[in-house]
Design goal:
The protein is an alpha/beta fold. It has a single domain (about 5-195), classed as 3-Layer(aba) Sandwich (Rossmann fold), CATH 3.40.50.880. It is about 25% helix and about 30% strand. It has 5 helices and 12 strands. The chain has a 7-stranded mixed β-sheet with strand order 2-1-3-4-12-11-10. Strand 11 and strand 12 (about 170) form a beta hairpin. The model has no long low-confidence stretch (mean pLDDT about 95). The structure holds glutamine. Keywords: Glutamine amidotransferase, Hydrolase, Lyase, Pyridoxal phosphate. Its EC number is 4.3.3.6, 3.5.1.2. Belongs to the glutaminase PdxT/SNO family. In the presence of PdxS, forms a dodecamer of heterodimers. Only shows activity in the heterodimer.
């Protein structure tokens, strides 16, 4: 199958590597522009989106990766990775940029100081009958969804926490740390279909 890249500048890229390895994918950690050569998809991990943005620019990775995403490279972002795929951040730190591609506006650290981390179960019919156990760690919320993006999951109060658009998938939570593999399988299907 195609090689799947994982942006490995910062954050929980090892957890994603473990899940993808377990699913039999060929994995490559991406740190330099040449690491993008030949990958069939890329995972953007959880971590700190403003730091990943800065490091990507420092390593000369920002523009080449943005171009690859614009050209249709499949990508799956979790938490900070979702922020990096959003077209707009409502409250980014000064100068913070995103790769974009998802027609959404996100708000970082959206769940408030008292409850920035919590767990819940989500019904996501696309992934089958068993609910997804979702762990949020200082996660973002999708504040608005444009016409080109599609909601995959929302909390009981309606706040959107998973979206997709074309070859792009984003979740505000972290399947890579809970033994939940269905998002990664769903993403690998997209990668294989795009190859
Ligand atoms: N709050 C972080 C950010 O803004 C995301 C947290 C996470 O990825 N767990 O990038």
């Amino acid at each position: 199958g195609p090689v799947v890249g994982i942006l490995a500048l910062q954050g929980d890229f090892r957890e994603h590597a473990r899940v993808l390895d377990g699913l039999g994918a060929r994995v490559r950690l991406v740190r330099r522009p040449e690491d993008l050569d030949g990958i069939g998809g890329i995972v953007l991990p959880g971590g700190e989106s403003s730091v990943m943005d800065k490091l990507a620019r420092t390593f000369g990775l920002f523009e080449p990766l943005r171009e690859r995403l614009r050209a249709g490279l499949p990508a799956y972002g979790t938490c900070a990775g979702l922020i990096l795929l959003a077209d707009e951040i409502e409250d980014g730190i000064a100068g913070q940029q995103t790769f974009g591609g998802l027609d959404v506006v996100v708000r970082r650290n959206a769940f408030g100081a008292q409850n920035q981390s919590f767990e819940t179960d989500l019904d996501i019919p696309e992934l089958g009958e068993t609910p997804v156990h979702a762990v949020f760690i200082r996660g973002p919320v999708v504040e608005s969804v444009g016409p080109d993006a599609r909601v995959l999951a929302a909390l009981d109060d309606g706040r959107v926490v998973a979206v997709e658009q074309g070859n792009l998938l984003g979740t505000a939570f972290h399947p890579e740390i809970t033994g939940e593999h269905r998002f990664h399988e769903y993403f690998l299907d997209t990668v294989r279909a795009a190859a």
